[in-house]
């Protein structure tokens, strides 16, 4: 299976376990029961900080290391943040934004963000970065812990809320009708459990969507 548009997933305090949920493309219907992340990606360390699709590969960020996965196997030895031009010990989130063609890949840490350089096959960050998050993303709510693209709009999550950003407005603010509760946005979520998103989706080659969540009782 080729992973496309992989966004961010990670670990929050008090998480009991992490699971992979395969849902329909409209994100409303569960296709299969959840599978543990380490079963889908054998050998992947925990905790995971973030993940994003880079071409046909999945980049998984764990501390200073970047595990490059093709299908569900490690493509080669891990990269490091310093190798791609990021002077940090770990990152907060990563995502692919479809506002541009080709889509841009962003990485956030603290008050700064980087963009991978497509001219260098996304192997390093653009030399014009880092930039301050408040420079271009000032209206994104503080404390977000993941991001994903849905219907070509970037969404951020914080706790049990989803924030959709409106790229059609010059101020790039939160879209009307948001934030929404996770359980409303993701219609397949059980109503008697608390599900906190700290990841996004994997629209796969087989027209499925894999959603990685932190599962709380």
UniProtKB/TrEMBL annotation:
Family matches, as PROSITE patterns: HEMOPEXIN_2
Keyword Membrane: yes
Hemopexin repeat start and end residues: 88-140, 141-189
Transmembrane is among the record's keywords: yes
Alphabetical UniProt keywords: Membrane, Transmembrane, Transmembrane helix
InterPro entries per record: Hemopexin-like_dom_sf, Hemopexin-like_repeat
SUPFAM superfamilies, alphabetized: Hemopexin-like domain
Residues spanning the membrane: 195-216
Protein name: Hemopexin
Organism: Caenorhabditis nigoni
Top-level taxonomy: Eukaryota, Metazoa, Ecdysozoa, Nematoda, Chromadorea
């Amino acid at each position: 299976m080729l992973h496309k548009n992989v966004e961010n997933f990670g670990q929050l305090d008090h998480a009991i376990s992490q699971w992979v949920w395969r849902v329909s493309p409209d994100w409303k219907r569960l296709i299969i029961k959840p599978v543990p992340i380490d079963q889908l990606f054998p050998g992947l360390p925990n905790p995971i900080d973030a993940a994003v699709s880079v071409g046909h590969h999945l980049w998984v960020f764990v501390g200073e290391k970047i595990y490059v996965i093709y299908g569900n196997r490690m493509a080669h030895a891990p990269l490091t943040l310093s190798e791609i031009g990021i002077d940090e010990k770990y990152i907060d989130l990563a995502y692919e934004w479809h506002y541009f063609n080709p889509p841009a890949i962003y990485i956030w840490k603290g008050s700064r963000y980087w963009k991978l350089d497509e001219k260098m096959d996304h192997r390093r960050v653009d030399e014009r970065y880092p930039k301050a998050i408040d420079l271009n993303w000032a209206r994104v709510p503080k404390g977000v812990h993941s991001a994903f693209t849905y219907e070509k709009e970037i969404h951020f999550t914080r706790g049990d809320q989803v924030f959709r950003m409106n790229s059609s407005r010059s101020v790039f603010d939160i879209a009307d009708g948001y934030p929404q509760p996770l359980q409303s946005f993701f219609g397949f979520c059980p109503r008697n459990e608390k599900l906190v998103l700290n990841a996004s989706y994997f629209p796969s080659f087989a027209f499925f969507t894999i959603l990685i969540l932190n599962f709380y009782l």
